[in-house]
Design brief:
- It contains ten helices and seven strands.
- By secondary structure, the protein is of the alpha+beta class.
- It has a five-stranded mixed β-sheet. A two-stranded antiparallel ribbon has the order 1-2.
């Protein structure tokens, strides 16, 4: 709409409006994007709806980030369980079904061994693979050599004198538990006692899954903290009422697709190079972090 300096100029070009006609009002201002609440989500959105939004509707990640912390905690636990399901629960279950259970494995596929005076002796080195978890028994040395560990797997390494629980990731070995075998196994422990301890091994498998879940969640929560250091500067200049906690939660939601890509690739045997998949995941995460803020970025909170 054309603007004029004053009423005289307007009348010169448009004429005088008919008597009784309402005065022409100035062109209304466009609403500020600050008042645009397209990013809002229902107050009681389910975990599955959060999952859907995190994948297909990045503009609503701001809304997710402003929900109650309890709902975010539920989502993190859901994602942790989903990752553990892909990487551990399904592979372990399939393996147990394939071998006919741990009892059959110990009775028919495990060589003889015995713990005497705190030293374990086995006739030969052997490995038990249970999904993304390995049990390695190698009594040729006090501890199992580090080059025995497979990447991205939890390994219970049993040497002649020491037992270790190790997780391998990105070329680094992280020792979760380490101690003398005599502190974990009774004197005279052998294959028959191992067979009788099958229920305890099932409990250990559950605990191993929980450990993997905690480690996986810890890794992505730490990544969210690093992403927040980047996103916080942008969030401050949007005019949106967000704090660091909101931005931190948004960064976790933004990682959903990246988490799926990386862990599905691991679960299927790593057919694609892990570095490339990780880079794609990081790119998508950054895109999903910046996209919700884009409509508001030109508004600054600084006075």
């Amino acid at each position: 709409m054309k603007s004029y300096l004053n009423d005289d100029e307007r009348q010169k070009y448009e004429g005088t409006p008919p008597e009784g006609a309402p005065e022409q009002e100035n062109e209304p201002e466009m609403p500020s994007p600050k008042s645009d609440l397209d990013f809002e989500v229902p107050e009681k959105v389910s975990v599955f709806e959060q999952f859907r939004i995190s994948i297909v509707s990045p503009k609503q990640l701001i809304g997710l980030s402003t929900m109650k912390v309890s709902r975010f905690v539920r989502y993190t636990l859901f994602m942790g369980f989903l990752m553990t399901l892909m990487l551990y629960i399904i592979p372990v279950t399939v393996t147990l079904i394939h071998i006919g259970g741990l009892r059959d494995l110990f009775e028919n596929r495990t060589p003889d061994f015995k713990l005497t005076n705190g030293v374990l002796e086995a006739k030969e080195r052997f490995t038990i693979e249970l999904g993304s978890c390995d049990i390695i028994v190698d009594t040729s040395g006090a501890i199992v050599p580090e080059d025995s560990y497979e990447a991205h797997r939890l390994t219970f390494a049993i040497g002649s004198r020491k037992l270790q629980a190790v997780i391998s990731n990105n070329g680094m070995n992280y020792v979760l538990v380490e101690g003398a075998i005599k502190d974990y196994l009774p004197e005279g422990f052998d294959r028959q006692m191992l067979i009788s301890a099958v229920p305890g091994f099932y409990i250990a498998l559950v605990l191993a899954g929980i450990i993997l879940m905690v480690i996986t969640l810890g890794k992505y929560l730490l990544a969210s903290l690093l992403y927040m250091l980047i996103a916080w500067g942008i969030a401050r200049n949007t005019g949106l009422d967000l704090n660091k906690g909101n931005v931190f939660r948004l960064c976790f939601y933004a990682q959903t697709i990246g988490m799926l890509l990386v862990n599905i690739n691991k679960a299927t045997g790593g057919y694609l190079p892990s570095l490339i998949v990780s880079m794609v995941g990081i790119f998508i995460t950054l895109l999903y972090i910046f996209k919700p803020f884009r409509p508001y970025a030109r508004y600054s909170t600084d006075e």
